[in-house]
Amino acid sequence: MSHDPDEDDDDHGHDHDDGHDHADDPALARNKLRAEALESLLVERGLLRSEAIDAIVARYEQEIGPLNGARVVARAWVDAAFKQRLLADAPAAIAELDLPTGGRQAPIVVVENTPGVHNVVVCTLCSCYPSSLLGLPPVWYKSPPYRARVVREPRAVLREFGLELPASDEVRVWDSSAELRYMVLPERPAGAERASEQQLSALVTRDALIGVAKAGAPRG
Amino acid sequence: MPDVHDLGGRAGFGRVAVERDEPVFHAAWEGRVLGMVYVALGGGWVNVDTFRRGVERMDAVRYLAASYYERWLTSLETILSEAGVLARGYAPPPPPPENRRFERAAPRPPRFAEGAHVRARARKLSGHTRLPGYASERRGVVARVRGGFVYPDTNAHGEGEQPQHLYTVRFEARELWGEAAEPAACVHVDLFEPYLEPAERPDVA
Q: Could you say which residues of chain B have pLDDT below 50?
């Protein structure tokens, strides 16, 4: 979908002057009006305060993002006992780190990449995603091509992301079809043996946590 | 064929289009929709399974053409209206405890153990289910027994939570896709006990 349609709401601090007028896109203009109408009605009925929506939006724009997942991974790389707890009971282990994960959490399962095994996550039925650790999913994760193809031809999809796996490696796809949310624990990149935990967390991208990239690799 | 939202394995889609430096929201209305969905679900006005079903009930052509948040908006309008939330005089239920999750005690012990060979039943063709079409009538092995969870098939239709055991089942790519399967690949799917029946160990590992 195109960037920044017909936005004129100044409450959220964005600058929308991209010199491109999308107001002629009827679907986007209609969605905006529909969303405004629904919110107005809920406010009028006393069911909702717009400030509550502002707070949720701000939380996902500013606080909850893949840095949470990256911090979990970096800790697992430097602390073998933590890693064992993480793989056995991820919610309990993650709670040790006191991350800003927000109030709405699904149970997390962490799956570990090892030499010869690569994991990748999808939700073929909707777009379930470990949002408490990664923030909101990118459009490609929610798109029909990814959801349709990654279960059937994971190697081909990973190749499009720039990740060529050896034929001998096993690819494990995890389809989040219930309320468990999967996150990949990537392999610690070679050459990062002396990095601090904080430096390590900077090597962990969102894509590595989904499993369409390796940690420490350039973004696909 | 199952509903259009059940996309796993469908042919005809091209490359995965990746947007560089993607913003969290592409327009402010998307954030408003996300917030309203979270408030509606968190407040217990409607449940997440009814919400997902609302998305699935979209016309197939519209579903594929719509953006993610347009689907959310469509479902929210539909189910809030049907649940009477938009009617004058609607009184919201007492809010559920913060962080109310989906784990529930199932009434019976689990039928299958880790390592059990199972076969997914035929996917039903109407109503909400979380059995993907591509796993329907395929054989796999129970990788993990996850405990009891709210059963989406009933919860989506106002028939209660009816907790069921959940299993992570491993399906080999060859079992799912036949000769066209990529080598050394498998798919793990989280499946509720009513979706599964015992299976014989396959002849070929």
A: 205
Burial, A91: exposed, middle or buried (Cβ in 10 Å; 0-12, 13-18, 19+)?
middle
For B46, the token pair is 């409607």
Reported as a pLDDT band with limits 50, 70 and 90, residue A12 is: very low
DSSP 8-class letter at B111: S
Nearest to A35 among B29, B180, B182 (CB): B29
* Contact yes or no for B134 and A171 at CB 8 A: no
Catalytic-residue membership of A123: yes
Of A126, A148, A169, the CB nearest to B52: A126
Confidence of residue A17 (pLDDT cuts 50, 70, 90): very low
Catalytic residue at A128? yes
Taking one residue from A and the other from B, the number of pairs with CB-CB distance under 8 angstroms is 230
A34 to B77: CB separation less than 8 angstroms, yes or no: yes
Between strands B185-192 and B164-172, the pairing is antiparallel
- pLDDT, tens digit, for every residue of A52-66? 999 999 999 999 999
Q: Dihedral, CA atoms, B151, B153, B156, B158, nearest 10 degrees? A: -90
**Helix, strand, coil share of chain B (percent; to 5):** 30, 20, 50
Using 50, 70 and 90 to split pLDDT, how confident is the model at A192? confident
User: Which of B141, B151, B149, B145 shows the shortest CA–CA distance to B200?
Assistant: B141
ipTM tops the 0.90 cut? yes
Tell me the chain A residues in contact with residue B55 when contact means C-beta distances shorter than 8 Å: 126
Residue B166 to residue A175, Cβ atoms within 8 A: no
Return d(Cα A135, Cα B167) in angstroms, integer: 26
